[in-house]
């Protein structure tokens, strides 16, 4: 079981900003998972990996693919109070789900 | 309502590693909160701020203070598979709770 969080590297987000966006996505996708997947993932050490995408289009594609595959997922748009324009898509989380299912959607992306 | 996640800046964690530790702490403290606090925070846009600490001792102190104040909190130790020694304390999350209560514990820390 794992969760992959894909964040945009092309926005020039600061480290703290990036971390907050990743945490938003992680929590929101977690809440989309059913109770059994939540428990299994937590029992497994709630493995999370943070991956990079280089465009908004890439995020949308990952989000769409996770949706088609029926995996828990969440796309985060920034409220735009600080570094970004309001509504900018910043991160998408996929899972918790089986490693195989998550890899099928995010497997060819590089670590952030 | 907000949640503050305090991460160590003295460990030289990479950006993705930092984001994963912050997400661990965020989710774990969220699960410690009661249902009313969870709902109120989410209705409020689940505000998260990421702050910096410069030592393990600082993290322990924040964790202890949150405990004394009765706030949801979670201290994360890294499993040590990659960049860090096993058991290294990396981040602590405080809240979701009222802004005032969170600020009483983390208010004098700088943004990460």
UniProtKB/TrEMBL annotation, chains A, B:
What's its EC?
Answer: 3.1.1.29
Q: Note the superkingdom of the native organism.
A: Archaea
* UniProt KW keywords: Hydrolase
**Residue ranges crossing the lipid bilayer per the database entry:** none
Q: Name one Pfam family in it.
A: PTH2
Q: Which reaction does it catalyse?
A: an N-acyl-L-alpha-aminoacyl-tRNA + H2O = an N-acyl-L-amino acid + a tRNA + H(+)
Annotated GO MF terms:
peptidyl-tRNA hydrolase activity
Cellular component GO terms, alphabetical: cytosol
InterPro entries assigned to the protein according to its UniProt record, in alphabetical order: Pep_tRNA_hydro_II_dom_sf, PTH2
Q: Which family does it belong to?
A: Belongs to the PTH2 family.
Main function: The natural substrate for this enzyme may be peptidyl-tRNAs which drop off the ribosome during protein synthesis.
- Its recorded name reads Peptidyl-tRNA hydrolase
